[in-house]
Amino acid sequence: MRKQTHGIRGESSLPAGWRSCVRRCGIGIGALSICLLVGCSRGPASNEDEGAKTAVVAEVTVAKVERATISRSLSVSGTINARPNQDVRVSSLVAGRIAEMLVAEGEAVQKDQVLARIDDRPYRDQLQQAEATAQQAKAQLANARLARQREETLFGRGISARKEVEDARLQEKLGESAVQQGDAALALARLQLSRTEVRSPLAGTVVKRLLSAGEAVDGTAAQPIMQVANLSAVELFGNVPAEYLGRIRVGQKMEVTSDAFPEAKWEGRVVAVSPAVDASTNMGLVRIELPNPGAHLRYGMYLSVELPVETHEGALVVPQNAVYRNEEGSPLVYRVKGDTVEAVPVTRGIQSGNRVEVTGAVQPGDTVVADGGYGLPDGAHIKVKAGP
Fold first, then answer.
1. Tell me: domain 75-84+229-309, CATH 3.30.1240.10, correct?
2. Partners of 274 in the beta sheet?
3. pLDDT one-digit tens code per residue, 88-103
């Protein structure tokens, strides 16, 4: 009788080594075929990853490398003040009570315009007294002259003694002195009366009223009535660190803007650099003159200006966001070459606003990546975003 052989159908077509493996594992020929097909259909993992990298396209914006003049600026902050000799605290030159205030804060005044009046009644009385004294002295002088003439006539006739003549001449001299004193007292009384009108010593604007009508003044500079300043041109008093003072030159110009008046621009000019430094702060004073035709700049206003301390002409500049950092933290730009980018190491220079100076293997007119370049590998594919 023929012995029946138990095995897997179709395994006779396999090589001897595969047949024994099939018997031990109990795998059907169909399942084995599926495994072989699946295994052969997959390529190397590295080829698949490389294809995925190639397929990634970054969307970026671009900018041009340009030549331009760029400056390093120092921010100087300070307060607005009047120019020297154009700011005065006006005081009364006579003591008394303020009878009337004629101007208010913010009003424009002219030179010698009356700002306030002091009660003048006591000074009018003093003037009348001085006038009476002067008239009395003149009358006494006239009488002394007549007496001297009479004594000289009598002395010529031999009637009067020489001593009488000398006494008459002395009285005339004393009368002349009294007239001079009376005239001086009268002039002083008139001057004091005129000083009861407090006048502006310069043309400008009333910055501040320090007293009011009815208050008393002592007639000294220690008690000013109001402050007047000429603000047609002003000065910014700013403090600068000592290490920068040597880089600032008198006559240096800069453009000044203010957030309070975005439509206005002023051309500032350095007029003085302090030769001394404050030992406690290590800072020195810099005075910057600013024209103020529209009176936008107010007395005491706080203002900041950008003062150029270093300028490079013909420098290569790019937008600030076009400079990236590699893994070591070194700066680079991505130069566009067709639809790929090339990482180019650069050195940063002066930064001003949104522009930065770069030096390295870049040329004017090169196109570089602006936005969208973070993490791009060298040679990455890009797509430039269309403009708005």
1. no
2. none
3. 999 999 999 999 999 9
